[in-house]
Amino acid sequence: MIWESTRACPLACVHCRATAQPDRHSGELSTDEATELMRQIASFGKPSPLFIITGGDPFQRPDLFELVRRADELGLHPAVSPSGTPTLTEENLTKLHEAGARAISLSIDGSTAEVHDAFRRVDGVFDWTVGAWQTARRVGLKVQVNTTVYRGNLRDLPNIVKMVQSYGAMTWSGFLLVPTGRGSQLDSLTPAEVEDVLNFIYDAGDYIPSKTTEGHHFRRVVLQRRAIAERGGDPAAELGLGDLYQELTADLRRAFEGVPTRPRRPPMNINSARGFVFISHVGTVHPSGFLPMEAGNVRDQPLPTIYRESELFRSLRDPAQYKGKCGRCEFNAVCGGSRSRAYALTGDPLESDPWCAYQPADVG
Is the entire prediction scored with pTM above 0.85? Predict the structure, then answer.
C-alpha cells in the first residue's frame, strides 16, 4: 500500500512520474482523512500490508511525524520514501524512527555526484542522500536503495552495487523506467538491453539483496537462471545475452573479487492491482503510481472494497485477460509484465509489456 502523501517536492527529477511541484495541492488528504485511510489499510487484516508514505517529498507535510505515529498505533509499521533534500537531517530521521517508522527508501542513481545530481537536476542531492543513508542506519532505520536504470547510468550500475554493499542496505531495487510524466522524455532502453540489465541484477544478488521495480519479468529471469544453473549451463549463451550484460557482469566480478556470495533474496510475486495498490495525494486509487487509471476514491468508498471489487483491479489480476505474447506466455502467472508500461506505451494496460524480449516457449 503506497500513499502519495503530497506532490510537493523541491527537486525536478528528469524521470518524475508525478511531475512534482514546489507547492502542496489544496485537495490533499488532511491529517484526519489520512488517518481514516490508514484505518482502512489496517482493516485488510493481519499480517498488516506493507505501508509506504511517499510523495513528492513527504517532508513537505508538516504533519508527517504525526501521520507516522498514527500509522504505528494502527499496527502498520510504516516506511517513508523521502526526497534527497536538506530535510534529511539527523534530527528529522531520529524523529521518524521515534514516531514508529521502520525503514526509509532513498534513491541513488549514480555512484558519483556528477551522475546522480544531473539526473535529479539539483546540485548537492547526492551528498544529502548519502549522508542521510549513513545517518538513517545509525539512528535505527532500515534503508532500501532505489536506482532508476536509464541510458545515462547503465555503465555505472556495478559501481552502485558496490556502493550499496559498502554502505549497507536491506535491499537494492533496480527501477525499470515507465515512460510517464517527465520520464516520457527519456531515451528508452531496448528490450534486449532490458534482458541484459535484469540478468545483471540477478548476478548482483550474489552480493547484495537485489530486486526490481516495474521489472516484473525479473521473476521469469530468476526461474530461467535457476534452471540453467542446475544443469551447469552458460546463461549468456542460452539466453542470448548481449555485450551490455557481458560488460556489466565483468565489472561486477572485478568489483567483488574475493567477496563471498550471499543467499539470494526471492522476488515478491506482486504486480499492479495484484498485492499492490497506490493511493494518490487526493485519495484516488490506482493499480500503481505509474498506471494513472482510476478505480475509485477513498473519500467515497473503502479501500478494501475498491481493491477487491473494482473491475479494473480484477481484470489486471487475471492473466487470462492479458493480450499478445503476455497472454500466451507460460510465465504470465508469476510475471505478467509491467501493466504500467503497457498502458504508457500502448494505451491498454492488458497489452504485452513492450520492453520484454522473451518469446513464449523459448526455454522449455
Answer: yes
